[in-house]
Design goal:
Largest sheet: 14 strands, mixed
Radius of gyration: 45 Å
Helix content: 25-40%
Structural class: alpha+beta
């Protein structure tokens, strides 16, 4: 859109021109600047664009005629272009030569004077005496003498010759005197320049300036060879014709009119510069070029410019048998052009009276007029486009942006898709079936709106090949929980959308969050991990990197060698297969129950015991064998839990004893150091030799003011809490752990265990996991009621075999719409990555306010190490499957538009809703394995949707391998 300054300038010029139109046309006519208020059609805007281009071209040729391009020469040039297929160029060529003539000396009187003043007192006898204070009151005479200062200055006389020509030539023979050239104007003025001070030439001795060229080929192609009139038509049947401004013909006009504007600017600059050199001389060999004004004062504003975007309201349209266009007629165009020629002749006469010779002034005047023609045409075309913006704004009531469109797409998809296949917000509760959730996980944008995904729950992983999470080179953890495939369909206009992965744990709840990608059919590669508990919240920014579309990729490798193409294809396939993003959520309480041999849901209300167990596993990495129930199965629910409590208390007591021993040793050392200092007679005792009690570290406490209480009381410190209970059996584990007090909490030496490989891991079926005849169930099924399982989909599209092939299959489908990318937007596969800076909110204790911290690369690694260590403990180093988990596999694709929403609609004449709708149907069809008709809520819309997209009706019985 045009800037406010240019719009105001354009409006002022149009208002002035409209007053001239009222004088030119009949008083019964009332054409006004085109506006949405005029009764017109969309085709009338094209007609107005053609009218402006025709008038502009005719105005240019009228101006060329004043420069010397007569109709005979014009006809020859048109034939050379149309018949001989030659190009025609308008050239301004110039050269300058400066020659030393003579040296002279002149006397210059200085404007400053030396003044001498004498005062005398004449007596009667004619004698003069000096004036004193006693002589005051007598008659005085004053004599003033002034002296002028004359300087001799050397002058250097130079003769400056300038030669310039304006001519046209065809083909490549650019010589001015060639057979195919026509000289329009040629001049050779000269002048004398006088310099002072040093004998340095004011200009180079001889210089040939670079020629200034502009092509007239396109303008001559718009001239009818027989009638020599303008013929400009916009081909509206071409697929490239989008709007009155955005079509091939108008683009060519835009390019050539802009080139003419630049040519006129450069030529005028050269002539004005030449005038300044000539004006610097004292004695001109010819008559003065300028009498009263300079060339820079010429603007051509008084010449009528007929390029006006006018509409005329037709009063008697109802009586006309055919609809009448509000665009002015060809007769009106002729009247406008006649007024242009009249005012142009008047201004040339005025210039001739002011300049002698008037050649340079006339060139500057005509060039200024051609610049005005180009500017008004440019602003007139923009005015037509601005009408579209204004009409669209009036129709909707606002300027639509990407957020508004996203909101509409959400609503539209809910009406378009059936309930079974409609996209759902990516927001899931983390909980056992039928119980209160432990937390939540979601993908949100900047406005806290959840991302919409096409979601498909895969078959029960208990009967399929499990997914493995490699946690080190020797250990892989078997994942047996539920799995969901999400197809995330985004739309991007000028700016990339911003999303983040958010997860939050509730109070007295905890879970493990692992983020990574699928690196194989049954391998989930962890890249990040974090433990969330007790109202922790993590916000992870997501980076969305679009890959080139299939058509863009094909165009890029078209000119490569076969070997280079094969390398590029292999690398692209590898990148596609590694673009499968995954988020795994593992509940800790259910897995702890399986790990410790406790009945199902036995830890639901054992909050303190659960916190103790997590602390022992996370902070001290206690082997699970030291905490597991190993008694008879006949014991009831509470007795089994009591046994585990006893084990936890025994280990906590051991940790406390080890800590007390270290604190006592530290206290003894500090006291001995203090006594040694006194023995040397030191008077200044440093605070570091104070007793342990004075520093807040003593019995039952450690640095930071923490306390340890027995009999299952809370252990609090600056770093967290821990609980201990009485009873239970204590193992001989005196030196297994070593607690080291620190300012932030407790740490321990890591204990490593060799784990089984993923193929050698034990398969524990639900029937084998029974305690007191209570089976341990896979209870992480909060989406079971939400998503129906469609068995026939699995038969058509066996996605569960290898989910890394999904992006490749989508990419194959995207390629079918490659021809529509120029205006309809490119559909690109998208790689999801995590950002660098995470934000974590946590509460140090239950009554404190949440604190926000930033996690970067170093903290990412620390959190991942904790999570992987806990996963290793929960799975007994890979020997125990993880059943209480959900794996969300996300495949993203983006429909990318180069322009903003409103510019896509106005400038490209594209309905982005229709394109996004088609892309969404395509992605949903692939993910769910059904044809487009089954996805729709209203089957009658199928013909509308597939009218311009026959590929959506492809045979869905094609096998998965054939699709890929």
């Amino acid at each position: 859109m045009a800037s406010p300054y240019h719009r105001n300038e354009f409006s002022s010029k149009i208002d002035k021109a409209v007053k001239s139109v009222e004088r030119i046309l009949s008083n019964a006519r009332n054409p006004l600047i085109a506006s949405p208020d005029h009764d017109h059609t969309y085709d009338d805007k094209f007609a107005l664009s053609e009218f402006l281009s025709k008038v502009a071209l005719a105005s240019f040729f009228n101006t060329f005629e004043r420069l010397g391009l007569d109709k005979t020469t014009l006809g020859d040039l048109v034939k050379a272009v149309s018949n001989d297929k030659k190009s025609v160029t308008l050239r301004f060529a110039s050269s300058e030569k400066c020659e030393f003539i003579k040296e002279s000396t002149i006397e210059i009187i200085s404007p400053q004077k030396v003044v001498e003043e004498h005062k005398t007192d004449e007596q009667a006898d004619g004698k003069s005496i000096t004036i004193t204070s006693s002589k005051i009151g007598k008659r005085l005479k004053r004599k003033i003498t002034s002296t002028k200062i004359v300087n001799s200055v050397k002058q250097y006389h130079w003769k400056m010759d300038v030669e310039y020509s304006i001519y046209v030539y065809t083909g490549t023979n650019s010589e001015m005197d060639g057979d195919v050239s026509k000289v329009l104007i040629s001049r050779n003025p000269s002048c004398e320049i006088i310099t002072r001070g040093s004998k340095t030439a004011p200009t180079p001795a001889a210089a040939t300036n670079n020629p200034i060229d502009v092509s007239l080929t396109w303008m001559l192609q718009c001239i009818n060879a027989e009638a020599l009139n303008v013929d400009f038509v916009i081909d509206r049947k071409e697929s490239s014709c989008r709007t009155p401004r955005h079509n091939n013909e108008t683009r060519d006009a835009w390019t050539h009119f802009r080139a003419m504007h630049d040519w006129c600017t450069l030529v005028n600059y050269h002539l004005i510069r030449m005038e300044k050199h000539a004006a610097s001389g004292n004695d001109l060999l010819e008559q003065p070029i300028v009498k009263s004004i300079g060339l820079s004062a010429i603007n051509g504003n008084e010449i009528f410019v007929p390029v006006l975007p006018l509409f005329e309201s037709i009063q008697d349209a109802s009586t006309s048998p055919t609809p009448t266009s509000p665009v002015l007629t060809a007769g009106d165009m002729d009247v406008f052009l006649a007024e242009q020629c009249r005012t142009m002749s008047e201004q040339i006469e005025i210039i001739s009276s002011q300049f002698s010779p008037p050649s340079e002034a006339m060139i500057v005047l005509l060039n200024a007029h051609m610049k005005s023609i180009s500017d008004l045409w440019n602003n007139g075309i923009l005015h037509i486009e601005n009408m579209l913006y204004k009409q669209l704004f009036n129709a909707i009531g606002k300027s639509v942006d990407s957020k508004d469109l996203s909101e509409f797409v959400r609503s539209h998809n809910q009406r378009l898709f059936s309930d079974t296949y409609a996209p759902e917000p990516f927001c899931y509760a983390i909980r056992r079936y039928g119980q209160y959730p432990d937390g939540i996980i979601s993908i949100e944008d900047e406005a806290n709106e959840n991302a919409l995904t096409f979601t498909r729950k895969l078959e029960n992983r208990e009967t399929q090949d499990p997914m493995y999470i490699p946690i080190n080179s020797a250990t892989s953890v078997e994942l047996r929980g539920d799995m969901y495939l999400h197809a995330w369909m985004l739309q991007k206009f000028e700016n990339k959308p911003s999303f983040s992965l958010s997860s939050r744990a509730r109070q007295f709840s905890s879970f493990l969050l692992i983020i990574g990608k699928l690196s194989g059919p049954n391998t989930f590669e962890p890249q990040h991990g974090i433990i969330l508990q007790n109202k922790d919240e993590i916000i992870i920014p997501l980076l969305l990197d679009e890959m080139p579309s299939p058509q863009e990729f094909k165009d890029a490798i078209a000119s490569l060698s076969p070997e280079q193409q094969q390398f590029a294809r292999s690398f692209r396939n590898m990148k596609l297969s590694s673009s499968v993003f995954g988020v795994c959520v593992i509940q800790l309480k259910p897995q702890l129950e399986i790990l410790l041999g406790l009945p199902d849901k036995s830890l639901t209300k054992e909050i303190r015991l659960t916190q103790d167990l997590l602390s022992l596993f996370i902070d001290y990495q206690i082997p699970s064998d030291l905490l597991s129930f190993d008694g008879p199965d006949e014991l009831d629910f509470s007795e089994k839990v009591g046994v585990v409590k006893g084990y936890a208390k025994d280990i906590n007591d051991m940790i406390k004893g080890t800590k007390d021993e270290e604190l006592a040793n530290a206290k003894l050392k500090a006291e001995m150091d203090y006594a040694g200092t006194l023995a040397f007679g030191s008077q200044d005792v440093d605070s570091s030799f104070m007793s342990i009690e004075d520093q807040g570290v003593g019995d039952g406490g450690f640095r930071g003011g923490g306390t340890i209480d027995h009999d299952y009381q809370t252990v609090s410190s600056a770093g967290g809490t821990m609980s201990c209970s009485g009873g239970g059996k204590m193992f001989g584990y005196a030196a297994a752990c070593r607690a080291i007090p620190s300012g932030g909490g407790m740490g321990g030496a890591a204990l490593s265990f060799s784990g089984a490989s993923k193929r050698g891991a034990s398969n524990l079926s639900p029937s084998s996991m029974k305690y007191n005849n209570v089976p341990v169930l896979s209870t992480f099924n909060n989406l079971e009621e939400k998503l129906p399982v469609v068995s026939n989909m699995m038969d058509k599209l066996k996605l569960d075999n290898d989910l890394t092939m999904v992006p490749k299959q989508l990419d194959t489908q995207f390629e079918k719409f490659g021809n529509d990318e120029k205006y309809g937007g490119a559909l690109r596969s998208t790689v999801i990555k995590t950002g660098e800076c995470w934000r974590k909110k946590s509460k140090p204790n239950i009554i404190s306010k949440p604190e926000s911290t930033l996690l970067r690369s170093k903290e990412h690694k620390e959190e991942k190490d904790k999570a992987i260590d806990l996963l290793d403990a929960l799975s007994r180093s890979g020997s125990l499957p993880i059943r209480c988990a959900e794996l969300h596999v996300i495949v993203a694709s983006t429909h990318c538009f180069d322009k903003s929403v409103i510019n896509t609609v106005v400038q490209d004449n594209i309905n982005p809703i229709e394109k996004i709708e088609r892309s969404s149907l395509l992605v949903a069809s692939v993910i769910h394995g059904v044809n487009v008709g089954e996805l729709l809520q209203d089957k009658t819309q199928l013909s509308r949707i597939t009218e311009g997209s026959s590929y959506l009706l492809a045979d869905d019985d094609m096998s998965y391998d054939e699709r890929c």
